Amino acid sequence: MTRGFYDDLAGTYDLLYADWDASMARQAKALDWFLPDGLVLDCACGIGTQSLGLALRRREVVGTDLSPVAVARARREAAQRGVRVSFAAADMRALPFGDGTFAAVVCADNSLPHLTTPDEMRAGLAEMRRVLKPGGGLLISTRPYDGTRPGSQPPSVKHAADGRAITFQLWHWHDDGERYDAEVFQLLPDGDTWTVHTRQMTYWAITRAQLSPLVAEAGFTDLRWVEPEDSGFFQPLLVAQAE
């Protein structure tokens, strides 16, 4: 379900933003402050929002994503901007790199909660730790799920610039009260009318109290949460260091 969602969305993913390039630059500036020197892995790169932004700030970046369609677009976007980023299709639970390859791993924009069980989450975090050098940095961002449970809904509508798209979501909560299916509606102009595209994916609304111990268990220390007003990033950041 997750791969199919992002395969289908890759062509219009940038329309989730009012101004994708401005968002790319803003997010990269916020993340860059927390990253050590050295090679960075963006392990859920999508079409390149964080990868390209960091590369434009002269970071050496590798991007991976579950969706090969998104990865193909990220490559095209990098070429158009004249930046060098190595991209590959890969599941974050089975990263195609040797131990200790990277100085930092980024998993941004609520990507980690696509792993919807503790065991899946452990597998993803273990891989991030494995490919990090000792002392390497980990950056994870999630939606602010603390206090978000059945009945909660996301912000209602996003408008892309110049009337190119309208996007909104509905959340359908599972009986366990922790997981939900996000039904994403994207309206694209089609002459005098609009075409509606509907896609669905599942998330775990994991709280900080649930995620932090899993990160520590995977071999990370010095965990801290940084709020958007302090980081400049649009979601809370979990910052940690590989043992």
From TrEMBL:
One of its GO terms (molecular function) is methyltransferase activity. InterPro entries: Methyltransf_25 (IPR041698), SAM-dependent_MTases_sf (IPR029063). Keywords: Methyltransferase, Transferase. GO terms for biological process: methylation. The keyword Transferase applies. Residues 40-136 form the Methyltransferase domain. This is Methyltransferase domain-containing protein. It comes from Amycolatopsis xylanica. The keyword Transcription regulation does not apply.
